[in-house]
Each structure stands twice: as structure tokens, then as C-alpha cells.
Amino acid sequence: MGGKKIIKFFAVFFLIIIFIILSFVFINFRIISFAEKYIYTEMEQVPSKYTSIVPGAAVYGNKSISFVLRDRIEGAMALIESGKSQRFLVSGDHGTKEYDEVNASRKYVLKMHNIDESIIFMDHAGFSTYETMYRARDVFCVKDCCIVTQKFHIYRAIYIARKLGLDAVGFVAPEINRFSEKTRLAWEIRESFARVKAFFNVAFHTKPTYLGDKIPITGDGHETWK
Residues 147-158: pLDDT tens digits? Predict the structure, then answer.
């Protein structure tokens, strides 16, 4: 390969890298700027929405929920108990018998809160935030909702939900135990890539892993306890 061809090759390669970086930054900026006006940090300011949605997070041994998931659930319970939401939809990964985010969440709620069991709906196939919001719309017939999650995650969740047609707002889950700066940085880095994936999922109307029969959120949540 001649000298000019080498220079041309590296010039094209450099331009491609610059394009990828700029696209990455633009998508992240786009999602954050789109979602920020729908996000609340004070419960008193959150507008009433029929359903509170908690996206899944890690559980340990199908019994103990992570602090991340606990904070999301507690934020949603605050909305339920204050009358700002009427239904609770917990979504997550229940792809195997050995790993079950949604039943662990339900058990935690019933242990820690005195609420009507019938308002607890479980989405067993919420394998990603995109799938959670897609199934909330198409399986659970959710029209309006408040998504309760951490700040790093909430922009993506709101972007997806509203692009899918849900009247969605977000409530930043209050931290019961403060997370370390190292943990926050790791979340932010990982999330910056997840936003790009979500952008293309929305753009290309990606189908979720599972759909299934409709289970309207206006009904009895016991139907989802499987």
C-alpha cells in the first residue's frame, strides 16, 4: 500500500471515529434533553398518574432485593400510599426459575407495606427498560404512568415510554443508603451506551422478546401472580 493510500485510509478511519463519537454524544444529549422536563425529585410535585412502574433490578437468591430495586419500590410505594397512583406495576427478569426479580419485589412489598394485593401487577418478561415500557403499553394497557427509578436511568426510561405513546413522568427514587461515587460513575458510563441502544430500539420499532394476552392494569393484579 502506497503512502497516499495509507494516508487516505487513516483519514477515512479518523472521520468514521469522529462521526461515531459525535453520534454517541448527540444521542445522549437528545435523550436527556427530551426527558428532563418530565422528571421530578420531590414527591409532592409529581402529578397523579394511574400506574407507578418500577423497572427491574438485581435480586439475590430470589429473596433479597438490591438497594437499587429497594429504593425504586419504596419510591413507588410512597406514590401509592399518598394517592398519587392507583396501580403498581413491577417489571423485571423472570426468565428462569432460579432468577426472579418480580416475585422477590412483590414479597418485599407485602412484607413492608400494608396495601391491597390486587393492585400489584407483575411483568415477568421485562428483560430491558424498552421491553418493560413496550409491554406496559401493549400487554397491561397502561395509558399514563410514573416511572420510579434512579436519576442515571430515568432519562432513558422516560424517553422510551413517551416515544411509545405513554403519558409518562418520572420520579427519582430517593436513596435510603447513599451510593458511592465510584458506583455512580460506573452507572453513568454503562447508561451512556444503553441510551444509544434505546434510541435505535425506538427508531426501528424493535419487538420485545414476549408479548402475550392483554392483562389490563385496571383489573386484578392477582392474574399476574404466576
Answer: 999 999 999 999
Q: 171-200 pLDDT, tens per residue?
A: 999 999 899 999 999 999 999 999 999 999
Model confidence pLDDT, tens digit, residues 2-11: 678 888 888 8
Q: Virtual CA dihedral for 85, 179, 197, 38, nearest 10 degrees?
A: 40
Q: State residue 110 phi and psi, 5-degree precision.
A: -70, -30
CA-angle at 222, arms to 136 and 169, nearest 5°:
30
Retrieve residue 71's grid coordinates. Answer: 429504593
- Residue 102 sits at the vertex; the CA angle it makes with 128 and 49, to the nearest 5 degrees, is 75
pLDDT confidence of residue 179: 93
CB under 8 A, 24+ apart: contacts of 202-206: 202/130, 202/159, 202/160, 202/163, 202/164, 206/130
